[in-house]
Amino acid sequence: MTLRLRLLLAFAFLSIVTAVAVSGAGYVRARDAIVQRAQDNAVIETTSRVEQLYPLPARAPDAASLERIAGKVSGREGMALVRAPGVSAGSMEESVITPELRGLVSSGQVGWQRVAYHGGVWLVVGMQMRISGGGASGIEVWVLRPFTSEIEVVDELALNAWLIGGAGLVLALGMAFFAARGVLRPVRELRMAAFRLGQGDLAVRVPVRGRDELAAVATTFNTTASSLEHHVGELRRMEADARRFVADVSHELRTPLAAMTAVTDVLDAETASLPGVAGQAARLVNRETSNLTRLVNDLIEVTRFDSGTAALALDDVDVAEVVSRTLRMRGFEVSESLPAGVRAQLDPRRLDVIVANLVGNALRHGAQPVTVTLYVEGSSLVIVVADSGPGLSADVLPHVFARFYKADSARGRSEGSGLGLAIAWENARLHGGTLTAANRPGGGALFTLRLPLGGDR
């Protein structure tokens, strides 16, 4: 649930509670006042009409006199019932009088009660009549009058309360929407700025408005972004200096290494005739010079990738022939599945580097047999190199193509510089392809090279 929705729901809840409380309290007070006033008016009116009949004769009333009294107190819309001992008259049904109300009137008090009658609400008012002198006459007067108009007023009041509450809720939601929008704008700006910062836009900043908590957060974000931009800039500068240094040193070493290689080649040719320690030293110098030359060449290749100067020299080649030549020239003993006739637009030198690194890595760190498989899948050629070793551990797999990464940091330098797989991955990317590493279900590492057969890259 978003923060905006939570704010809107909170405002809506508070608005509903407030509207219900205010409208409900107003409705209850107004309803009670209307009902009470209507009841009081009905009682006063009935009492007044009864009092107009005084003084009553002292003789016992008959049915005709009771009928006359009922007609005078009932009014235009009501009905009346006049009861005396042994006789009664009027159009009102006696069944609407409750025992509680009858007992109250019998005690000499004026009583009233709302009752349901013929699907509506009616008011029953009852009292005793007095004879001249104030004595009890024994005559009870009951008046039944409609209470519908008052109930309609109460219902209309309830409807108005609901309408006012609904309008207040809509208004509150509108105000909540704009308030939430204003409150959340800095949060939204901060979120977008954080996203851009995560994408590498270190120059992004958020505007600081006011002096509240959000302004403090925005200030902290800007300070953090500035510090991060400064430190990343320093790291990039140092990285650029390091790469430039490596490139310069590598190029400077090429000339003396070329001379050393020529000398070691001569020594290598004479090692058979050199006695004891001299022969061993000559072979050691030759081997270390070769390793150093390979390392320098790898470093130069990496600097070309970093500077963007590495380029493809594409040629229409028979892929199986290029792979076979790579394996044959390096003396790799592997199991091959290289169907002839698979042609592609590739840089043969870079394909040679990729295959040599993959197969050499499988032979050094995996186990025999090592298989090299070539096939076409859609518009791509696929070369799979698999070994039968223990495979790649879970902590090694994510870093297998990282530069200078070695699964065993204690490995000797003679086992490689840690650049071979990184260079293979860069060459695959340069072709517009991919190079991935995984583990075989039955054990062993599995490297899969996918390159486009031809076309745009």
Automatic annotation (TrEMBL):
Question: Where does this protein reside within or beyond the cell?
Answer: Cell membrane
Recorded hits in Pfam families, A to Z, give: HAMP, HATPase_c, HisKA
* Segments traversing the membrane: 161-184
How does this protein lie in the membrane?
A: Multi-pass membrane protein
The reaction(s) annotated as catalysed by this protein in its Swiss-Prot or TrEMBL entry are: ATP + protein L-histidine = ADP + protein N-phospho-L-histidine
Q: Which organism is it from?
A: Lentzea aerocolonigenes (Lechevalieria aerocolonigenes)
Record's superkingdom? Bacteria
Q: Which cofactor does it need?
A: Mg(2+); Mn(2+)
Molecular-function GO term, any one: ATP binding
Q: Which residues form the HAMP domain?
A: 181-233
Q: What is this protein called?
A: Signal transduction histidine-protein kinase/phosphatase MprB
* SMART domains found in the cross-reference section: HAMP, HATPase_c, HisKA
Alphabetized, the UniProt keywords read:
ATP-binding, Cell membrane, Hydrolase, Kinase, Magnesium, Manganese, Membrane, Nucleotide-binding, Phosphoprotein, Protein phosphatase, Stress response, Transferase, Transmembrane, Transmembrane helix, Two-component regulatory system, Virulence
